[in-house]
Amino acid sequence: MSELLLKNARIIDPVRNLDEIGDIAIADGVIVESGALKSPEVIDLTGKVLSPGFIDVHVHLRQPGNTTAETIASGTAAAAAGGFTSIVAMPNTSPSADTAGAIEYLRRIAVEQGVVKVLPCGNMTKGGKGEEMAGIGSLKNAGVVALSDDGKCIQDHGLMRHVVEYAKSFDLPILDHCEETTLAAGGVMNEGKWSVLLGMNGIPGASEELIIARNIIFAREINWKIHMQHVSTRESVDMLRRARAKGIPVTGEATPHHLSLTDEYVKKFDTNYKMNPPLRSEDDRQALIEGIADGTITVIATDHAPHTQTAKLVEFDHAPFGIIGLETALPVCFTRLVVPGIITIPQLISKLTAGPAEVLGIRDYSLAAGHAADITVFDPEAEYVIDKNTFRSKSRNTPFDGMKVRGKINLTVVDGRIVYREGC
Ligand code: DOR
Ligand code: ZN
């Protein structure tokens, strides 16, 4: 019997409203009552914060198709180093994850080579092209936990409405990348003062807001869960707030980069500031922070989007959208949200655990005895400088290299197995 005793940690368990110093006992992959262990391995966690394992509902693993940028092995290793015990794999691989076979492939490689739990997300449409619905029933049978065409957005509203009805009948939440393409076409950054000054083509906030409005209408009409990926504008947050107040089953996520950076950074012409949706204005960033603080936005997700140096080291206009985020999420959010007192440590943990679990329909995601031992431990005092050369990810496309941060992942445990340990 394998036993582990995590001692003297500040245990924070948002679902049970728990914040107290104590021990967590683990036997055979499951959390058990303290005192039940015979001869456990003991790790002293004095001064450290222990929580349920972080869940990231928005990760691009790039396998199959672009294994130079990332693989299931390297992406899950990066997740473990970032404190994530479960990640939802986006389907915009090559080939797309739009068939049962593709999902079976992902699940098999994840079991063989992955170090954290990989939850597959299937496409809503074939090839993610937005033209024809994917075989949603067979995707469900193959084990997908959600549906998304992330990277793209279904423009045909009739088709989208049909997809929402199918998603409901198969009990699958929709994770939608909200982008109206005629407004976004040709844009490479936020449309605003900085796009004018820099002479670059802009992507207006309205491109996102139109689709958020559409999705709220369908979520209400069909009474089904639609989660808005990487929300980036003030108006989007306002619409989400009003819809949630009416009891419409919509949720939203914000990324660490939209919470901490603005479109002004694009003046560096560094393609690590290019992602979709783009970094927005300071007013939009403040609105996201307000949404995080007041509970409108219940999820922080990374949109970990690896791209090779070769792909990113080109003119801004020609670079692909996206940055990596798994290994910087906790320190960036801790430094930008918790240290200035915008949110508390339990609130931050909730956005990384209970919030995402709820989106996926996972009930009671907590540290109560009997639950799988998926656990994250971090040091809330540790200060250091982010160094991209230490990353487990195969890619290096981050705007956070060299940032002075506070908050360091010390331990990641998946089903009672230590998959990352550093400094404890
Ligand atoms: O910046 C992004 N990168 N946004 C997306 O929606 C897709 C992602 C990617 O796959 O690279
Ligand atoms: Zn997206």
Keywords, please?
424 residues; alpha/beta; Urease, subunit C, domain 1; TIM Barrel; 2 domains; four-stranded parallel β-sheet; binds zinc ion
Task: Note down, in words, how this protein is organized.
The chain is α/β, with parallel strands linked by helices. It has two domains: 90 residues, Urease, subunit C, domain 1 (Roll), CATH 2.30.40; 312 residues, TIM Barrel. Helix content is 31%, strand content 23%. The chain is built from 14 helices and 18 strands. Strands 1, 2, 3, 4, 5, 16, 17 and 18 form an eight-stranded mixed beta sheet that branches. Strands 6-7-8-9 form a four-stranded parallel beta sheet. Helix 2 links the parallel strand 7 and strand 8. Helix 4 crosses helix 7, helix 7 packs parallel to helix 8 and helix 8 runs parallel beside helix 10. The protein is globular and about 65 Å long. It starts with a strand and ends with a strand. 57% of the residues are buried.
Q: Number of helical runs?
A: 14
Strand % is: 15-25%
Helix- and strand-based class? alpha/beta
Mean pLDDT across the residues is 98
The ligands bound in this entry are: (4S)-2,6-dioxohexahydropyrimidine-4-carboxylic acid, zinc ion
Tell me the total number of β-strands.
18
Cα shape: globular
- The third-level CATH topology of the largest domain is TIM Barrel
CATH architecture of the largest domain: Alpha-Beta Barrel
Radius of gyration, CA atoms, in whole angstroms: 20 Å
Please give the share of residues in helix: 25-40%
CATH class of the largest domain: Alpha Beta
Low-confidence stretches: none
Task: Please tell me the total number of domains.
Answer: 2
The separation of the N and C termini measures: 23 Å
* CATH superfamily heading of the largest domain: Metal-dependent hydrolases
Largest sheet: 8 strands, mixed
